[in-house]
Design goal:
Order of helices and strands: HEHHEEHHEHEHHEHHHHHH
CATH superfamily of the largest domain: 5'-nuclease
Number of domains: 2
CATH architecture of the largest domain: 3-Layer(aba) Sandwich
CATH topology of the largest domain: Rossmann fold
Strand order of the largest sheet: 3-2-1-4-5-6
Shape: globular
Number of strands: 6
Oligomer: single chain
Number of helices: 14
């Protein structure tokens, strides 16, 4: 009998309900993001920007929109070099908007979005653009089952007004599964290399006591692991041996349990810690149970 795959077994009756979780990729038009940061923000954002805090800022905005997702990678579309090489951020070079009217950016983002949708490479995509020409590409990706969200400023909270003042951007935002609102001041400060003041408390919360967070994560994962039937345990052990990632259904369940336990979404670093602890818990019982034992706890080949 062929051993069933762990991934497929989890898709039957084990998917959490009423959650918007999973993996996420962000496609960011740098020119648009700089423009967005200039809306109602104090302090100018120059052409040279700092992307150090981009992952954390976008993760925070996604969580505020009710999306407890794992932001795994950002694609940054730009015509300007910033000499920054950052983990989980990929730079895509495009022509200057003044030269081609954004055609190369449209083509690059559209191709990446289509690839993500066709390959089912992630559950969610966050796009930062106001270009109405993306409408058909977004629609096609959604028809492939991808959830597509759009980054916006506070004006997106009043869509009727948006449709009157900027109908093109309003039509793009209306196509989104979620409109992810980012505070222009936070964004401006981040692009200038500063820690957004309004995020200080949120950013500091996960590091107040790392060991307490680790202990809570361990307790949640251990309790979940104890509930799993042995066949699914064995499947997950096999899956983790051949993959650096974690099955999406497992990730969703654990993120949901942690959200319920902490009454908040996990930070980016906490999500990484959760996956480290998961591997430790899953591999622990396997190694501990490897020697054959008797009821007395002694190895079977040891004389009593």
């Amino acid at each position: 009998m062929m051993k069933r795959e762990y991934f497929s077994s989890f898709k039957q009756d084990r998917r959490p309900t009423n959650t918007r979780s999973g993996s996420c990729t962000a496609l960011v038009d740098a020119r648009f993001l700089i423009w967005l940061a200039q809306q109602n923000a104090h302090g100018a954002v120059g052409e040279s920007v700092n992307r150090q805090g981009l992952m954390d800022l976008l993760s925070h905005a996604l969580a505020q929109a009710g999306l407890d997702v794992d932001l795994r990678r950002v694609y940054w579309y730009t015509d300007r070099a910033d000499d920054m090489v950052l983990d989980d951020q990929i730079v895509r070079w495009v022509q200057s908007h003044d030269l081609d009217g954004g055609a190369s950016m449209l083509r690059a983002v559209g191709q990446d979005l289509a690839q993500l949708a066709r390959n089912h490479a992630c559950d969610h995509v966050l796009i930062a653009t106001d270009d109405e020409r993306f409408l058909s590409a977004i629609d096609e990706a959604q028809l492939c089952g991808l959830s597509v969200h759009l980054l916006a400023d506070e004006s997106a909270r009043n869509m009727p007004q948006m449709m009157r003042s900027d109908p093109g951007w309003g039509r793009v935002l209306s196509q989104a599964d979620r409109r992810v609102v980012v505070n222009a001041q936070f964004l401006s400060e981040m692009l200038q290399g500063k820690l957004p003041s309004g995020m200080n408390s949120a950013a500091s919360a996960p590091v107040e006591n790392v060991e307490e967070v680790r202990q809570t994560i361990t307790e949640v994962i251990t309790a979940w692991w104890d509930e799993e039937p042995e066949d699914l345990r064995e499947d997950l052990r096999d899956a983790l041996q051949v993959s650096r990632g974690v099955p999406q259904e497992v990730d969703r369940q654990l993120l949901l349990r942690m959200r319920q336990r902490l009454t908040r979404a996990l930070s980016l670093n906490e999500k990484k810690l959760l996956r480290e602890v998961l591997r430790s818990v899953v591999s622990g019982p396997a190694s501990a149970a490897s020697p054959a034992t008797t009821l007395s706890g002694l190895p079977v080949d040891m004389p009593i």
